[in-house]
């Protein structure tokens, strides 16, 4: 861990390294630097940004940044001209009101720390507070170290609670990431929703192809990265049922937007722009198709009242692909989701799908009918609203858990044609 102007930065690494860096293969690990004020990426420091260069796994040594910077944001409408705001993206200090500020141990709040689990390492940021020290956050980022399919993703748990013991209304809680996946033209990226509607991902861009520039070792369009929502709970819910909201419900929205027209004016992030954009853009079907400098905004809550005794925890994943496809991003999503359920919500995946798949609309009687068909069509083609239990939508029993047109065909076949039962639950 390194300390800069009072902040602690810790570099997490996935995967295993039995022979050290010199013996690593191209996909054995990725790294991400995380700060004690919630910032990730350290403004594109290089080699610690979910890229693949440090271990020699990328054919282009300059492709050393995927996540330039990211972290949580908090807005509050207090009736003024602009909302109040604190955010972590691009903030490598805490000298201004826009930065979250780490706190000391007074009052029992803890300092940054590392955690070594049996199959992960994690960095805990300690407590950091907003502009007026009324609301606090804590972040723990987990880097799986088991190898195999757990090398290209990390899992984040973000906690938020009242710091001054009072309730706080009209809050927006979320996270912004400035993706700068390596491209021919600087930081210009493209955003798209993956074919099955699971993930809003970002990819690099190319101005020349491999035949035009023979020194170019791969297409940047094959470099991809994403953040995605996994689940959440309040402390009271978790005490009553540790599996509350483990199936991705509860997210307000997630969108890709232009940095210049949607967030910044002369390199200053405008709170009103962030408030309006996060209010208006819900779901995950708002990609920016043109090539430009993009950010991802994930909104956990909008217009929310945080009670004096509330503590909310939001889980999300970060993943990247060095030379692959959106299907690889979805495979990483499935692996990350399984890791999250097994390690951070143990036992919760046992109660999702029951007996056979097909109960897409989460009918309490486990009936499979036209309502499930409607729900699956809505997820695949209309609002892209995730089913409460994704396993129930995997009608054809795809071993990677991919839900697509084949599952819709299978459900139609079961309901109206051959009546062949859906696949058994995994």
Written as H for each helix and E for each strand, in order along the chain, the element string is: EEEEEEEEEEEEEEHEHEEHEEHHHH
Major β-sheet annotation: 9 strands, antiparallel
Spatial extent as radius of gyration = 21 Å
What's the number of helices? 7
Question: What's the total count of β strands?
Answer: 19
Query: Shape, please?
Result: globular
Task: Name the beta content range.
Answer: 25-35%
Low-pLDDT sequence parts: 18-27
* Structural class determined from secondary elements: alpha+beta
Let me know the average pLDDT.
Answer: 87
Determine the N-to-C terminus distance. Answer: 41 Å
Task: Give the tags.
426 residues; alpha+beta; 9-stranded antiparallel sheet; 5-stranded antiparallel sheet; 7 helices; globular
What does this structure look like?
The chain has 426 residues and is α+β, with helices and mostly antiparallel strands. It has helices at residues 235-240, 259-262, 271-280, 326-343, 370-382, 390-393, 405-416, and strands at residues 2-4, 7-13, 31-35, 67-76, 84-87, 101-102, 113-116, 120-129, 135-144, 153-162, 168-179, 190-193, 200-203, 224-234, 253-258, 264-265, 268-269, 294-306, 311-321. Helix 5 (370-382) runs antiparallel to helix 7 (405-416). It starts with a strand and ends in a 10-residue tail after the last helix. Mean pLDDT is 87; it is low at 18-27.
